[in-house]
Amino acid sequence: MKAMDPCAVQGSARAPRVALRPGGRAGRWACLPLAGALLAGLVPVGGCASYRGEARTSPQAAVSDVPAPSGPLGFEQALALLPSRNPRLKALEAAAAGVNTAPRDAVLEAAGEWERRDWSHATLGTDLLSLLGVGAQPAQQALARAVREERLAQRLEVARSQARDLARAYAQLAVLQDPLPEPRLLDLEPYRRAGLLPASVWTEACATYAGWEAERQSAAVAQQRLRLQVLELLGCAPDAVLEPVLPPEGWPACPPEDARALLFARADLLRLAAAVQVADREARLMIARQWPTLAVGLGPTFDPLDPFGAVAVQWPLGAPAEARAALRRRDGAALELEAGVLAARHEAASARLALEASEAGLRFHRALYDGKHALTEAARTGAQVDRAELYMAVHLEAEELMAARELREARLACAEARVEAAFAAGWPGAVHASTSSRLPRAGQMRGSR
Predict the structure, then answer these.
(1) Which one, of 202, 99, 97, 91, lies nearest residue 147 by Cα?
(2) CA-to-CA distance for 327 and 45, rounded, in angstroms?
(3) Are strands 17-20 and 109-113 parallel, antiparallel or unpaired?
(4) Would the CA dihedral through 259, 264, 269, 272 be positive or negative?
(5) Is the pLDDT at 283 greater than 70, yes or no?
(6) What is the value of pTM for the model shown?
(7) Which of 248, 344, 403, 411 gives 372 a disulfide partner, CB atoms 3.0 to 4.6 angstroms apart?
(8) In the sheet that 121-127 helps form, which strands lie side by side, from edge to edge?
(9) d(Cα 48, Cα 103) in Å, to the nearest integer?
(10) Predicted confidence band at 441 (pLDDT cuts at 50, 70, 90)?
């Protein structure tokens, strides 16, 4: 009886291995058993994949001008377009689809032998346990499915991060779209010509004029940069035209505190849960690989006392240590999930406190601006009859400018804090919009096996 090559049942080869092993002096003619073994070994080749498409291997070939969505675009509409238009999300989707969820370790070996003095024979061998669906094969396939779920969870996490950036852009665009009223600055040119205005007062007035102009330009540039950020998230070119429909002030509303809803809405926690599942499946695979493999080669040998072409048993000596290490890695992944849940709850509480502080600061800066504006208006009225009031009005106009600038920064900071608090609390609207296309839902992630 010929012993089967031990390498024939190892590895993760996809194509069958066909071996021609002539013993002694090879015959000049192929025999029928040899031809049958070769044909049986070549049958699975018909299921091989062929190369398709062309890879874009240069930055020039990767340039794509995706047009912006036509018509007005609200936040919910833009968020629903993220999965189908954002290049990074599409790349992560392709990476998840590239995980083979039905791997097979078994190798199919077809062998034939012809000797002049001995009977010719052919064998078709494989791992018997894998063929029967037992051993390490089910655990390996379960691990592959868990890896795919982890890739999908990573994509969902990136999608929520991009949704947060999109919401922040819309909230801040709404702030910049509602500028402060233009100040009614004094016309000091007649006073300067008449010699009634000191040079220091004129210099301060010119700085105030320039400051208001810089404030308008700064707001316009900030709006354009936020529009570019929205275009990038939607996969559009920088010169695309965007018509955003901006939300009202005070958007989004921070959801009430709900620990259970928070755990199901946070994509980073879903990713950690998927990592635990992967570690658990890996541990199960390592445990299954502790058992020996049985390889049997079947074929006609023309010998009634030798019904099998070959029988081989392989015993993995280092598998128990690998299994124990995999169990420790699984326990570590579970502790990472526990730490992530605790951090998420503290992050939600901290973001809510930061929002309260930001709203308090906004109320202060709004009251400060209103007070400066009222004082400036009163000084402008008295400047027509009193030169001291004129000098005071010029100085108050500069202070009004500083108060207006601080108020704008406070409004932007409050809008950002409101978005951060809403997402830290698991903003349900954002979760639904992020998963409305091809992203996995939280229930699907938890229910997959």
Answers:
(1) 99
(2) 38
(3) parallel
(4) positive
(5) yes
(6) 0.72
(7) 403
(8) 17-20, 109-113, 121-127, 293-298, 308-314
(9) 14
(10) very low
